[in-house]
Design a protein that fits this description.
The protein is built from 15 helices and eight strands. It is an alpha+beta fold. It has two domains: 210 residues, Hypothetical protein, domain 2 (Endonuclease III, domain 1, Orthogonal Bundle); 88 residues, Endonuclease Iii, domain 2 (Orthogonal Bundle), CATH 1.10.1670. The strands form two sheets. Strands 1, 2, 3, 4, 5 and 6 form a six-stranded antiparallel beta sheet that branches. It is found in: Nucleus. Belongs to the type-1 OGG1 family.
Length: 358
């Protein structure tokens, strides 16, 4: 199921550009390499392996913006890129708008790593369909829903903002945190920044975050930044080391950080730490599980113990990549995708009815 992973691009530490609000600290200037005329290049992924609307606006990341009909833009490390799919074209294209570091080749490697391109969806879906025929029916209509491989610090900060929150407010908070990083450019009216470093984040006070609308989450962010800075070797290295641990050890380590509970830890583990069997359990996943995997629990109140049982049920059904299966089933429950599924099922019924009449 895995293709050889491209070597990770070198990490680039960059000084931050201040947000539109009053500057928090002095900053340094850094030269950006901008493309005079942005050029669209084919990416080594077809729409079967990557469908943009089933990957980006699905709660995995809150930093990417829709900048066209089927186009999404965001920063990956020091690179500002856009991804695009056109009707009738099976390939996915990307465009490098600017970079604080390297040319196209490094940006493409970083992009493929971010998209978990070494994992074949076709092989995964085929395996899941054998284990669960219902999954096969959903996957036929929602192909190309990928699990991202984000930078762990970036993913951690986003999900600290997400707790007991709505999408609009989460996005506003994440935009504020992002604006503390190096300004990379603008695409279709949206400003983009490289995600700020731990050092930069450490200069932001709890009071400043509260004034920006973070509420009680402000203390979790400043507390987590402080905890990470105290780790031997530094917080970035400590977070990366969690990719080598067993799932339960990685979850336990994340839960030592302020504001990180089991669900947030599972999201971070799945979307940034290569923990492909992590199952973030919320009320939506609970409803999916009680309908199809553990119907005997229907009507019960969701507890931490039952969250563990749901996660075990997913892993028992789908195996080591259970998190990918859970992600697709979760996406299928989102209003926009549910309408698409219902429309497809109605079309199938009409075709079958017509065939019977013939």
């Amino acid at each position: 199921m895995k293709r050889p992973r491209a070597p990770s691009p070198p990490s680039i530490s960059a000084a931050a550009k201040p947000p539109v609000s009053p500057p928090l600290t002095p900053i340094l200037k850094q030269k950006l390499q901008r493309t005079a005329t942005p050029k669209w290049l084919p990416l080594k992924l077809t729409q079967t392996e990557l469908t943009l609307p089933l990957t980006f606006p699905t709660g995995q990341t809150f930093r990417w913006k829709q900048t066209g009909p089927v186009q999404y833009s965001g920063s990956i490390g020091p690179h500002l890129v856009s991804l695009r799919q056109r009707p009738g074209d099976d390939t996915v294209s990307y465009c490098l708008h600017c970079s604080a570091a390297s040319p196209n080749s490094a940006a493409e490697l970083a992009l493929l790593d971010f998209l978990n391109a070494e994992i074949s969806l076709a092989e995964l879906w085929s395996d899941f369909e054998v284990k669960d025929p219902r999954f096969g029916e959903v996957a036929k209509r929602l192909r190309g829903a990928r699990v991202l491989r984000q930078d762990p610090l970036e993913c951690l900060m986003q999900f600290l903002c997400s707790s007991n929150n709505n999408i609009a407010r989460i996005t506003k908070m994440v935009d504020f945190v992002s604006s503390l990083g190096l300004y990379l450019g603008e695409v279709e009216g949206f400003e983009f920044h490289q995600f700020p470093s731990l050092v930069r984040l450490s200069r932001v006070s709890e009071d400043e975050l509260r004034k920006a609308g973070f509420g009680y989450r402000a203390k979790y962010i400043t507390g987590t930044v402080s905890a990470l800075q105290s780790k031997p070797g530094g917080g970035d290295e400590w977070l990366m080391s969690l990719r080598k641990l067993d799932l339960q050890d990685a979850i336990a380590a994340l839960c030592t950080l302020p504001g990180v509970g089991p669900k947030v830890a599972a999201c971070i583990a799945l979307f940034s730490l290569d923990q492909h069997s992590a199952i973030p359990v919320d009320t939506h996943v609970w409803q999916i599980a009680t309908r199809y995997l553990v119907p005997d629990l229907a009507g019960a109140k969701l507890t931490n113990k039952l969250c563990s049982r749901v996660a075990e049920a997913f892993v028992s059904k789908y195996g080591e990549y259970a998190g990918w299966a859970q992600t697709l089933l979760f996406i299928a429950e989102l209003p926009a995708q549910k309408a698409l599924l219902q429309s497809s099922q109605s079309t199938i019924q009409l075709v079958k009815s017509a065939e019977k009449k013939k």
